[in-house]
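Recall the central idea of this unit: under ordinary conditions, the amino acid sequence of a chain determines the structure it adopts. In this exercise we apply that idea directly, starting from the sequence alone.
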Amino acid sequence: RAVSGYGVVIGPIATGTNSHRANNAEVYGNTIIWETAPLPGVTPHGIAFSYATGCRAYGNTVIGAYAPFLNRGIDCSFVGNKADKAYGRCCYSKGSTNGLFAQNVLGVIAVDNTTGALSAVVGEDATNTTKCKFVMNVVVVSGPAVNVVNVTPSQDVDFYGNRYVSTRTLNFILGASTYTNLKDWNAVATVEG
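Accordingly, the structure predicted from this sequence is:
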């Protein structure tokens, strides 16, 4: 149990001389519980592959995190994990290459207006997310209206067969545009095949 920081981090927090030296790690069977309620500026992370290569996370559960699953690596995957009471970027690609988020179940209680449960953004070192896939994830929203997808401009991301469950309005953000339903989002480009 922790209140902030990282539950598990593989690789250095920042890019530099030690980047991509923590390779081929497997993180599985863990339960990480954060004891904080969603607070402005508090962004605990569950499992992070930070400037690592070929890492896999599977069969993990993260409860109460801002970012349960973060990928800044190359060829890293998060498959078959669960998040509950998440309140930020649940499956979060931040300048990753060939990342995969698949068959994860994400329980979302709220996110702020700048995030998305499935999210791809540019990294701190100005590296764009490239060839990232979000496949067959289930996003269950129990809080207020939420951005379930947020892809900032210039990110190379594919979405396949994800399910979004909520009785609330869900927003899909692609670049500078916001769509309030999956049909309108798909009308712009086939993002969910």
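The chain has a mean pLDDT of 86.
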